[in-house]
Amino acid sequence: MSAASAFSPSIAPSSSKFLKPSSPKTLALRLGFLSSSSKTLKPLLSRTSSSSAATASEAGRGASSAARMVSMPATKPSTLLDFETSVFKKEKVTLAGQDEYIVRGGRDLFHLLPDAFKGIKQIGVIGWGSQGPAQAQNLRDSLADAGSDIVVKIGLRKGSRSFAEARAAGFSEENGTLGDIWETVSSSDLVLLLISDAAQADNYEKVFSHMKPNSILGLSHGFLLGHLQSMGLDFPKNISVIAVCPKGMGPSVRRLYVQGKEINGAGINASFAVHQLEKDIDGRATDVALGWSVALGSPFTFATTLEQEYKSDIFGERGEFDICSTFLFPMTVAMLFDYLFLDIISTCSATTISDCQSDVLGILLGAVHGIVESLFRRYTENGMDEDLAYKNTVESITGIISRTISTKGMLSVYESFSEEGKKEFQAAYSASYYPCMDILYECYEDVACGSEIRSVVLAGRRFFEKDGLPAFPMGKIDQTRMWKVGERVRATRPEGDLGPLHPFTAGVYVALMMAQIEVLRKKGHSYSEIINESVIESVDSLNPFMHARGVSFMVDNCSTTARLGSRKWAPRFDYILTQQALVSVDKNAPINQDLLSNFFSDPVHGAIQVCAELRPTVDISVPQDADFVRPELRQSSN
Ligand SMILES: NC(=O)c1ccc[n+]([C@@H]2O[C@H](COP(=O)([O-])OP(=O)(O)OC[C@H]3O[C@@H](n4cnc5c(N)ncnc54)[C@H](OP(=O)(O)O)[C@@H]3O)[C@@H](O)[C@H]2O)c1
């Protein structure tokens, strides 16, 4: 039986081909993306307590109860994931009082790679976008270091412009390390599918049908899982599916790996997942995933996606309609919240949702873009010189604020200010926290209910002419006056300058981070995930790119999914900050002392400290003439 015909529809076909009427409980499970039962990944704690559920329920019912929401003790993650590895050393870490398991990376572990990749002769890296070049080169270098003869081969679509790029990086047709996409898929034992998420959604059947039986599919995102689940499909039975999701854009994954040659352990953290372990033909998927992550140079890898059990009974009743537009539309906000949030938390692993990380990434990118647009406009309208306004917004966040958070945490930013500065920080923090949370919450739920996935797939199809309508590829985002000012500021910026530490800007930015932390925490995510996705990824991977050459250089070095997400959500942050936060500051609205005291006492600060100690301090700065970025961004003006 071919892999493609081995699809296991998790929802029985009905008149709409895939969907059947769904009960709320069923829908909640379907809103999660993964389903698996595992022998080696053990859910130790599978349900949130009813008290935290009640808290969550209240939290969703409007802005007034939102204030109570942050006063509540942190929700425990819904699932604590344990795993077994026969190759690497598993360690327990305690983050904000919660135990998690991780595997530390480092070059000293490369000699274990042949063991982790036992049985694999060829790793096919499909795609050469942001992750492809980084992952392929890191894998190749790490395997060479380990003296392994496993071949890393790039597979690209016919006529791809990326052939030349891959050749320039040392891959070639002559030595069998570069070839056609389909030939590479069918000849590889481990297939890393690193084409854009929208292309994965459009080509998955062909990919599956070309894979060797018993081979392993590697993803760096849960998007394809979400797409399949939205159609009631699952992966073929005769392959294993694993994920390693680096918490940073491809160029950072490569850049910090190269730094790791000097500083053992330098790199970008990653999460890993093993999907449907019962399909892991010979039980080696966990070690392959960990080997893949260690070979990428991840300082630490934490377990992420696993749904405890595939509850087919819950899948028994489903909706024969569009779950978001038809079913959810008549619900009240509170019902929707209970429905999405509580059921997801109680029936799915935390990471079923979080694996839609590029949408989190889109938020990280979009939010910081929206913040600086709105603050630059405010500062200049209030008479600040344009160059200074750029420094006090973009340069401040991407320079000194990011560096301080990366090395000393968020509280240190606050503690750096004078009494006057602290007051300004507090006003900005208090006014911005809930407006930021409003958008973060909306985005999270758009991801959870599948609309964001659908939106990305449709956007990808609009990149090309069709239906008699023109093509709409992504447009430029750094051509406005503000970003031209940025070019001027950078042209005269002294080497290594990190910009001013501006208290108002810092207050808005830290409020955004804390609001995101709170949303992910309330949604039951683990601290490893929360910290990597809300804090470390921004300050170690993304912001240094904006510091080097502006917003497009940061956003457009990321995945297509993230680039779309950023373009969609940035204006929303700009809008809500301008319409609500800044208006509130201008009205001298009282500072929400509860919010501030929660910020000072939040256990996340200690947890960030633990994560910081798990990785070496690295130079996160990006040179203006960086040559490890997407080709089209190498020559553009800065
Ligand atoms: N970028 C990040 O920061 C990041 C971080 C973590 C995880 N991820 C995940 O990693 C995966 C890869 O993302 P990415 O950012 O590296 O890639 P991307 O920039 O989104 O996609 C670029 C690659 O997709 C290929 N592609 C596009 N349409 C195709 C089609 N119809 N058929 C075949 N190939 C096609 C392109 O081919 P050509 O070379 O021929 O143009 C190019 O190689 C995604 O799942 C993403 O979510 C990304």
TrEMBL record:
Keyword set, alphabetical order: Amino-acid biosynthesis, Branched-chain amino acid biosynthesis, Chloroplast, Isomerase, Magnesium, Metal-binding, NADP, Oxidoreductase, Plastid, Transit peptide
Coarse class of the protein's main subcellular location: plastid
Subcellular location: Plastid, Chloroplast
Matching Gene3D superfamilies: N-(1-d-carboxylethyl)-l-norvaline Dehydrogenase, domain 2 (1.10.1040.10), NAD(P)-binding Rossmann-like Domain (3.40.50.720)
Domain KARI N-terminal Rossmann: 103-304
Segment forming the signal sequence: none
Catalytic activity annotation: (2R)-2,3-dihydroxy-3-methylbutanoate + NADP(+) = (2S)-2-acetolactate + NADPH + H(+); (2R,3R)-2,3-dihydroxy-3-methylpentanoate + NADP(+) = (S)-2-ethyl-2-hydroxy-3-oxobutanoate + NADPH + H(+)
Pathway linked to the protein: Amino-acid biosynthesis; L-valine biosynthesis; L-valine from pyruvate: step 2/4; Amino-acid biosynthesis; L-isoleucine biosynthesis; L-isoleucine from 2-oxobutanoate: step 2/4
PROSITE patterns tied to this protein: KARI_C, KARI_N
GO molecular function: isomerase activity; ketol-acid reductoisomerase activity; magnesium ion binding; NADPH binding; protein homodimerization activity
Gene Ontology CC: chloroplast; mitochondrion
GO biological process: isoleucine biosynthetic process; L-valine biosynthetic process
Record bears the keyword NADP: yes
Record domain KARI C-terminal knotted: where: 347-488, 489-633
Top-rank taxon: Eukaryota
EC number of this enzyme: 1.1.1.86
Binding site for substrate: 418, 559
Binding positions for Mg(2+) per the UniProt entry: 533, 537
Family: Belongs to the ketol-acid reductoisomerase family.
Oligomeric form and interacting partners: Homodimer.
Name of the protein in its database record: Ketol-acid reductoisomerase, chloroplastic
